[in-house]
Amino acid sequence: MKSGFTALRTRPRLRLALVCTTLSLIALLSAEGAYVCSSAQAIGYTPRMTTQQVSEQTMALCARFSNSAHLLHEPEFKEELFPYFPHGHGHRFIWLTTCEADGKRYYIQFNDLTGNLIGLTPVTGLITHLASSRTATPVKTPAEAASLAVSRISELRLVPPGTRIALAADPQLIAQGGAWETLWRAHPPAHARPYDVRLVLARSGGAPVVALNRRELTQYPID
């Protein structure tokens, strides 16, 4: 394998935290969230990435898992402001963009602090997104799903090189049998704290449908 990270297998673990995190990602990707601001001027933050850099990064990302890709709108920089208990606020600085890959539309979110992918999710919702993908070669077994997920994680650069990933649970069919959900525990080099990764693949064809890097989702300053 030439993926730049190591895939391991561990015993199944609880899935609740990752499921909740993915629901959070979908909410965060909404441009109308209650705590979403159009800029980060409140704490004097200047974006590290540029619109051009995000556009290029988005196009490169979509091209790695599709034959045809293009941007649907110019990337938007946003601050997500939310309560951080017991006091203070968290400030998540993100770039939100939308691309079309092989005729399917995705919301894509990057962490401005790191430049890394937070996640992607279908614009139309999971069931509708999968409805037109029933004719490709199916991914038949959990083992096939796990093996393909390792390749997709590398293609999406969902974890950095040198990271070890291990299955946190056996791959499961979701979305009325139309997709494989794979849950992973990522172990960074240099003894950094492990984190969770979720990747959902279309059962027909194996294209990525939902991706989430929890480490990137939770890296933000607190005031």
Written description of the protein model:
The longest helix is centred in the last third of the chain and has 15 residues. β11 and β12 form a beta hairpin. The radius of gyration is 17 Å and the shape is globular. Strands 1, 2, 3, 4, 5, 6, 7, 8, 9, 10, 11 and 12 form a twelve-stranded mixed β-sheet that branches. It is of the alpha+beta class. It has one domain. 23% of the residues lie in helices and 33% in strands. About 15% of the residues have low confidence.
Please report the distance between the alpha carbons of the first and last residues: 43 Å
Helicity range: 10-25%
Q: In terms of per-residue confidence, which ranges show pLDDT below 50 for 5 or more consecutive residues? A: 9-42
Overall residue-averaged pLDDT value: 83
Major sheet summary line: 12 strands, mixed
Order of helices and strands: EHEHEEEEEHHEEEEEH
Q: Decide which structural class fits the backbone.
A: alpha+beta
Rounded to an integer, what's the Rg over CA atoms? 17 Å
Counted up, domains total 1
Number of strands: 12
Backbone shape: globular
Q: Count the helices. How many?
A: 5
Question: Oligomerization state of this entry?
Answer: single chain
Beta-strand percentage range: 25-35%
